[in-house]
Each structure stands twice: as C-alpha cells, then as structure tokens.
Amino acid sequence: MKPQDALARVIEHREIFHDEMVALMRQIMGGEVTPVMIAAIITGLRVKKETIGEISAAAQVMRELSTKVQVRERAHLVDTCGTGGDGAQTFNISTAAMFVAAAAAMFVAAAAGARVAKHGGRSVSSQSGSADVLEALSV
Fold first, then answer.
1. Would you say residue 75 has pLDDT above 80?
2. Under DSSP, is residue 114 helix (H, G, I), strand (E, B) or coil?
3. Domains of the chain, CATH where assigned
4. Count of CA atoms in the C-beta half-sphere (13 A) of 89
C-alpha cells in the first residue's frame, strides 16, 4: 500500500487491512516513507481509532525487522525498559538504572548468574533515548 493511499484511508476513517498495514510498515521501517508522512498516518490512525489488526500488523513487522540479540541462557536475564515519549523532558532514568542493576548483579547476584539487558530507542520527547546514551558511551 502506498503511504498516500494509507493516509487517504485513515482520513476517511477506514481501516488499513492487515496485509496492507504489513506492506506499509515494511516501507516505513525500510526508510522509504518521510517522517512527515509517517506522522500524518499515525495521527490519522489515532484519530480514527486504531484497530487490533492495524496494531498487530505493525507489531509483526517491527518484531520481524528488529535486531535480534542472541543470549546463551535466558534464565536470570532482566531487561530494563523506559517509558519514553512522556513529553515531560525527563532524565533518561532507565538507562542509568540498567548500569546500577548491572553493577549490583556483578556483586550481589553473581552467584545466581543474573544478567541485565537493555533495549530502547532514540529520543522522542527528551534529550536522549536509551540508544542515544549507549551509542554516546560506545556500548
């Protein structure tokens, strides 16, 4: 589905069907759609009220195209994730918490084999997202 067609559809308060949303999300995730068009489509979806099919199709593509992290053992693995997008210009506490948890895991939970993971994205509503902080630290 072309982004222009998706925008027209949501402006008319009509659903973007699963297969169409999958195709659209692949274009978005592939960098083929401008940020302005993405914002317009997402705003249109919000105004018309997103459907389960639209959300599940978008999530399917994001999971499909996301970077997969290989771990030897999933047991005792803790992932920290921030709220992001709160619009409050808050401090990136989840990334700082990840470093504290990892340090604590080294000393307190080493016998249990606890490990700390961190995932996140770029800044949306604050000065830095988790990816921005970790990139700046060369982690």
1. no
2. coil
3. 3-65 (1.20.970.10), 77-136 (no CATH)
4. 0
